[in-house]
Amino acid sequence: MKVTWRSPSNIALIKYWGKYGRQLPRNASISFTLQNAYTETSLDWNDKEDDGKIELEFEFEGREMPNFCQKIKTYLAGITDRLPFLTAYKLNISSWNSFPHSAGIASSASSMSALALCLCSMDESLNGKISEESFYHKASDIARLGSGSASRSVFSQMALWGETKLDLNASNEFAIPYGDKVHEVFHGFHDDILMVSKSEKSVSSTAGHALMDSNPFSELRYKQAHNNLQRLLLALKSGDLKTFGQIVEQEALQLHALMMTSTPSYVLMEGNTIELIKRLQAWRQMSGVPMFFTLDAGPNLHLLYPHSVKNEAKKFIERELVAFCERGEYLEDMVGLGPIKVT
Ligand code: PMV
User: Which residue, by CA, sits nearest to atom 6 of ligand 1?
Assistant: First the structure.
C-alpha cells in the first residue's frame, strides 16, 4: 500500500514563538499557506510482527539520510498513542522539496505536514474513512507534534493555530482554516522570498522556543501577540492593507528582537536584510504601493503584496532589491490552495 501527499510551506503573519508541554503554543498564530514551496512525500507499508518498535527506511531526494531517518523514527515512536498501528508495519518514506535546501523556507512545515497527511491516509486505509473535517484536524494535530508551524500547512490560503477568545473554534492542538474569513484582496496575495543568505540557521527553532522560557519580555510578548492578532483579524476581514502591513512588519521585527534579547542572544538578520527593509520602506512611502515585509527565524526577507500590484512589485524587486540577495536570487511564491493527495 502506498500514499503520496504534496504539502506546502507557510509564512506566519502573527508568529508562534514560545511553547510548553507537548508542543503547545504560548500564543495563537496565523499564516498564509504558500503555493510553490512544497514537500512531496510518499509512504508505503508492509506487514511485520508488532514488536512495539518502529521500522523505517527513509530517503530524501533519492539519498538515504541517517540523521533525518533517526529524527523521523523518534517522531513516529512518539505518536504511537495517536497511531498505534505504526509498530505493526515496515514503513518506507521518500520525500523531496520543490525548493532548494537552506533557502530560508520553513521546510519543517511542509515536510512534517506532508508526512502527517500520509500517516492519516494510512490510518484511513487501515481503519476506515472519517469525515473530511476530522481528517484535516487529525493531520494538523499530528503535524504539530512534529513541528508546531506544520499544523498550519494543511489548510488552503490561511490557517489559525492556538486557543484564542477571538475564535472559539481555535485550538492549541490543531489549526483551523481561516481563508474564507478574509477580504478578497488577500486571495492570491504574493510572498516573494529574497534570499539574503542561504547558510544554515544558527539557532534551531527547538532551541529558539526554549529561549523564550527565560526571556525577560516573554509575558509582554504573549500579550502583544494577542493584541496584534485581534487587530490583524479585523484588518484581514475589512481588507485594510495599511494596518495589515503595520502589524505584520512589527511581528517580524519583534520575533528578531526576542532572539536578540534572549540568553544566549542571536542576531539572525544580516546587513543586507536591514538594507532591504529600508529600501522597501522608502519606496513604499514614495510610490504608495502596498508592499510589506515579514521574516522567519533567519535573514531572508519575505515580500508581501496584493496581486493587483504585481507588475510594479516585480520591477522594483529587480531594479533595486536583487542586488542585495545571495547570487541575485529570489523565489516567487503566493498564497495557495493547500495540500493535495497525489495518488
Ligand atoms: O514550527 P517550528 O517549531 O519550527 O517554529 C516555527 C517558528 C517560526 O517559524 C519562527 C514562526 C512561525 O509561527 O512559523
Answer: 149
Work out the number of other CB atoms within 10 angstroms of the CB of residue 45. Answer: 21
Contact assessment for residue 13 and residue 30, using Cβ atoms and an 8 Å cutoff: yes
Q: Which of the listed residues 9, 14, 16 should we mutate to test ligand 1's pocket, taking the one with most ligand atoms within 8 A of CB?
A: 16
Is CATH 3.30.70.890 correct for 186-334? yes
- Strand residues in the chain grouped as ranges (E): 2-14, 19-20, 24-25, 29-47, 55-60, 63-64, 89-97, 158-161, 175-177, 190-194, 292-295, 301-305, 330-334, 340-341
Query: Cell for 268?
Result: 539572525
Q: Is 86 in the pocket of ligand 1 (CB under 6 A)?
A: no
**153 close to ligand 1 (CB < 6 Angstrom):** no
* Amino acid letter, residue 219: E
Distance 4 CA to ligand 1 centre (A): 25
CATH 3.40.190.10 for domain 2-181, yes or no, is: no
Q: Cell 547570487: give the residue.
A: 327
Q: What is the pLDDT of residues 30-52, one digit of tens each?
A: 999 999 999 999 999 999 999 99
Name the average pLDDT for the chain: 96
Other Cβ atoms closer than 10 A to 66:
8
Give the pLDDT mean for 198-227: 92
State which ligand 1 atom lies nearest to the alpha carbon of 206. Answer: 3
The pLDDT value given to residue 163: 98
Confidence of residue 202 (pLDDT cuts 50, 70, 90): confident
pLDDT, position 21: 97
* Structural domain spans, the chain: 2-181, 186-334
Closest CA to 75 of 41, 45, 115: 115
